[in-house]
Amino acid sequence: MSSSDTVPSNARVIPCLDVDAGRVVKGVNFVDLADAGDPVELAARYDQQGADEVVFLDITASSDRRETTVELVHRTAEEVFIPFTIGGGIRTVDDARLLLRAGADKVSVNTAAVNRPALVAEIADEFGSQCAVASIDVRRTGAPILDGDLSIDARRTDGGAFPFEVFTHGGRTPTGINAIAYAIRVAELGAGEILLTSMDRDGTRDGFDLELTRAVVEVVNVPVIASGGVGTLDHLVEGVLEGRADAVLAASIFHFGEHTVAEAKSHMAAAGIPIRPADA
Amino acid sequence: MTRPLIAVLDYGIGNLRSAQKSLERMGADARLTADPGVIADADGVVLPGVGAFGPCMAALEETGLDKQARAAAADGRPFLGICIGLQLLYEGSEEAPGIAGLGILPGTVHLLPGNVKRPQMQWNRLEVRGPSPLLESLDGAWVYFVHSFVAPMADNVAATCDYGGPVAAAIADDNVWATQFHPEKSARPGLRLLENFVNQARTAAVR
Predict the structure, then answer these.
(1) Of A126, B7, B111, B198, which alpha carbon lies 20 to 30 A from A63's?
(2) How many domains would you assign to chain B?
(3) What angle do CA B93, B94, B100 make, to 5 degrees?
(4) CA separation, residue A113 to residues A117, A123, A189, A194 (Å)
(5) pTM metric for this prediction
(6) Helices within chain B (DSSP H only)
(7) pLDDT one-digit tens code per residue, B146-185
(8) How far apart are alpha carbons B96 and A249 in whole angstroms?
């Protein structure tokens, strides 16, 4: 069913914290990293500012970093009273269990789910769909979209030429997988939410890839978080009104104090978007 | 002020720790436990949870917490079910046909209608239907929902939210309270609700 038939959600504003060895970083296209502080403190600050959720992305997660990540989740659960998601390096149901038990509300899976989509179903079956976020990194590599045509034909879910391709390993590795078809698949497998990142836009501050966002929103009936490219508060508005995203994710505009979450929400509300006020 | 002992029933699935930590923050001695002795001594009992009806019910039965939960609800102590912990209080759910729930509350949990996205994963406003100590000062408050199934509308529905029509958001049935939303994830208003519950447990402890 297309989301155009459904009652619109109240939009959510989600700051994203890229975490490396327990510290927050934000890369420009994931290359140049700058330390922006303690993730738990930042998340608690965003909670106080009226953020609807927080996402932690452990960009260098590996088995030896697991303890650091669990410790981060543990501390966050004591200080942050809004939902938070942790992603990065989650390969098995046991990885997910460890993080959920430590106090995470959702886990997002990316590369491991592309390699083995059944992982999404396993997490959803064990812990519920609401815990299972499918994170999809996308680049435009294929056929151009003619005249902005986003019909199913233009998206080519049938294995032919298509405009949007799934990438893994932080946007470095092409997969040859059609992102639209993949989004449909993970939703069918039980993902409760899709975190959709345009790797072309990530770090550019040029705004979301709205065509990509809308193309995915139209083919799945689970919430979609738009991600990648936010540079202004108007970009957040566009993500919801034009991209039709259920939630918008941003990092640097919040981390470096350019805008507070409260300013973002006021701006979105003024544009007519239904949203929880920051001071509620 | 005394810290009432609150048993947060630990049946091993998903994030149960957030509920415990937020109750602690609001003044309780909250323990994540499956120990019948602790549960028997508790001034209040919380059945938290995330997950699917079938596996959660199975986990409650495996740990014997189904009996503990029924006993706690029956003996009049403040009892709070959260999210799937609300749904488990009913006789069954469309999510798991043929599997019996705790049967503390009458009726069956059903799927949200087809004209809304499922799950409802968003913040939404509470409309409180009548006075309840748990919901004091929470009319109009924004709280966080994540669910695809919903309790039946009945007189014990103490608050609703609007999601393609009124949806049961909180239950008040004598000493048995429950929320479809996650108070432990609902920022200040959620902490306020948990504080209200801790106060009920403290009063019960004194009595």
Answers:
(1) A126
(2) 1
(3) 35
(4) 4, 11, 11, 12
(5) 0.91
(6) 17-25, 36-41, 53-63, 65-74, 84-87, 187-206
(7) 999 999 999 999 999 999 999 999 999 999 999 999 999 9
(8) 34
A86 pairs with which residues across the strands? A56, A107
Show Cβ contacts of residue B12 under 8 Å, excluding neighbours closer than 6 positions: B34, B59, B63
Residue B9 has which token pair?
Answer: 């029933």
Give the C-alpha distances (Å, rounded to integers) separating A111 from A89, A169, A173, A184, A251.
Answer: 8, 6, 10, 17, 21
List chain A residues with CB under 8 Å of B182: 83
What's B29's domain CATH number?
Answer: 3.40.50.880
For residues B19 and B82, is the Cβ–Cβ distance under 8 A? yes
Quote the domain boundaries for residue B156.
5-205
Whether ipTM > 0.95 holds is: no
Structure confidence by residue, pLDDT tens digits, B56-99: 999 999 999 999 999 999 999 999 999 999 999 999 999 999 99
From the CA of B207, how many Å to the nearest CA of chain A?
A: 31
User: Which stretches within A36-178 are classed as H helix?
Assistant: 39-49, 66-79, 93-102, 111-115, 118-127, 152-155
C-alpha A33/C-alpha A21 separation (Å) is 13
For residue B98, give the 3-state DSSP assignment. Answer: coil
Interface test with B, best of A72, A130, A216 (most B CBs within 10 A): A130
